[in-house]
Sequence to fold (367 residues):
Amino acid sequence: MTITDTNYLQQVAQLGDMQSVTCTENILTSEGVKLLPKGARINRDVIDRLLHHKLLKPIDFTTHIENAVDHDTLIGIGCELMARTSETGTLLRILRNEGFVEQSCQRIHLELPIQNKLTVAYNLRPELLEHSLRVSLAITLIGEELKLPEKELEVLATAGLLHDIGELHLGVGDLPLEQNLDLEHWQQVRSHPIVGATILNQFKAYTPQVARAVQEHHERLDGSGYPQGLKAIRLSRAGRLLSFTEMAIGALRKYSLRQLLTIIKSNPHAFDSKPVSVFLDALHRFENSGSLKAAEVRTKDLTALFELISKMILTAEAIAKDRTDQQQDSEPCLIDSAVVKYNQGLRRAGLDIKDVSGSLANIGDDQ
Ligand SMILES: [Fe+2]
Ligand SMILES: [Fe+2]
Fold:
């Protein structure tokens, strides 16, 4: 398959306007004509030169992008995702501890040209990189629950992160909702798994299992998926796991865990039963611990907030007390009336700023 680079080149040039993107060697046309010398900056000033010729090598093989995405970047984004109160973040947090993100990200194989692509995504399509990392973390978790060998976990973590890398080469930007696609958009959407697999096949370091899983990530076991409409028997294990995980993580952007469960149940033959059962088990654990965790979070948040408010009011009262009667008459202070108002509000809620521990015990009782 030939990959159309126009859209991707434009994104690289756009990034080049924001930060340093330089040629690591002369950039040549397929006929050997030099377009840019080694060391030249790539930005929108030179984009026309690149767009009007077929390049000898893909742009990622001949450029250096400053501050490229690496394992540390991914770990940072992953920890942030896990800390969020989104459905995925909460689910991950309940099932795994903080070390999981680091261990899972370290399993992802990164080649320099691929790091360039991830850096373009990080800066220009951050939602795409976040989605990809969510899928990577979730599929690794499923693989761990299924007790798959370490080599296979590396395939899953890598394919999970890179499954939508072909999207960077589409001409449509962010994918619109599938039901609203016209024919041109649909053809591009349909091609992105193949574009992704073609890119990965350029590297010996990415095993065929990774590229195959990427190509299969929108296939469905009943043959209703794309790009090829392959049925279960023709799909790889990593592809089947990725297909379910990608659907689940994508759906959780719009739906709750409960609604996702309905989607799964109404498509009983579309997804592999193994990741589905891991998910259902995770959901069960989530629901059993959910109310407890929510209560813990609420109590912690309320406690911190009340301590802060108490300190603020006591400090404000102390400042007001220090002012002389004469000062109070000549400089009416807004803070005085605010202190009285907030203090009354807290008392009505059964909270006494002079008895923090007693009030906190009340908060605990209410939970
Ligand atoms: Fe995706
Ligand atoms: Fe996709």
Remarks:
- DSSP finds 16 helices and four strands in the chain.
- The radius of gyration is 27 Å.
- The mean pLDDT is 85.
